[in-house]
Write a structure and sequence with these properties.
Blueprint lengths: L1 H20 L1 E6 L14 H12 L5 E3 L2 E8 L2 E8 L6 H12 L6 E7 L7 E4 L8 H10 L5 E6 L9 H5 L5 H23 L2 H8 L9
Parallel strand pairs: 1-4, 1-5, 5-7
Antiparallel strand pairs: 2-3, 3-4, 6-7
Length: 214
């Protein structure tokens, strides 16, 4: 009898682990509120909005953020737009990682990056925060930087001391035209990450921006 109970427990645990391995939390970073919706700092939100619209799913307001769920080739992606504002993104990510019982390798964070030209995308499986306050807070809350981040270049066309106004400013009209293609590429890269592996996903994403999008 004890052996049967142990086998059931082990089988249940294995099933839960297998399920967790097919689930991913994709956190798009940004600030809540209409005044921030079209700003450079909210490009992470923009990617998730594009994904949810293309998948015909809607976000629901839950603890620490808005959540939507999409599926692709047997994988489930939980799309999180934190409601904690950019600098406290770690609270939301930590909560949902715990709620979904996911390992760190199943976390993907999407954010803006002023150190990359507009439209350039970089995926890394770990790394420093690069001065990004949202990434910095996630690292502090999780106690590790061993999780995947996708940085989307927004450029750095600002004078000294103008960084805050720049990232909280809107994209130019020309840049807005290029955003749909960028979002589509990032979404495809995340799907690749979950289906064919991180290395091939990075090979796909880590290319220079097309000239027409600059």
């Amino acid at each position: 009898m004890i052996r049967k109970v142990l086998r059931r427990l082990l089988s249940k645990r294995q099933s839960q682990e297998d399920c967790a391995g097919m689930n991913y939390l994709v956190a798009g970073l940004g600030n809540i509120g209409a005044e921030y919706a079209s700003t450079r700092h909210n490009v992470g939100f923009m990617v998730l909005d594009a994904w949810s619209q293309a998948s015909n799913v809607t976000f629901s307001t839950e603890r620490y953020g808005d959540i939507a769920q999409v599926s692709f080739k047997g994988r489930k992606f939980y799309l999180l737009k934190p409601s904690t504002y950019m600098n406290l993104s770690g609270n939301a990510v930590r909560f949902w990682m715990g709620k979904l019982k996911l390992p760190n390798e199943n976390l993907i964070v999407v954010c803006d990056d002023i150190n990359l030209p507009f439209g350039t995308v970089r995926m890394r499986k770990s790394g420093s925060d690069g001065g990004h306050n949202g990434l910095k807070d996630i690292e502090a809350c999780l106690g590790t930087n061993a999780w995947t981040r996708i940085r989307i270049g927004v450029g750095n066309d600002f004078s000294r001391g103008g960084q805050v106004d720049y990232v909280l400013g809107a994209f130019s009209e020309e840049q807005k035209d290029g955003l749909p293609l960028i979002c589509d590429k990032v979404i495809e890269g995340i799907r690749n990450y979950a289906t064919i592996g991180p290395d091939r996903a990075m090979n796909f994403l880590n290319t220079k921006a097309e000239k027409r999008n600059l």
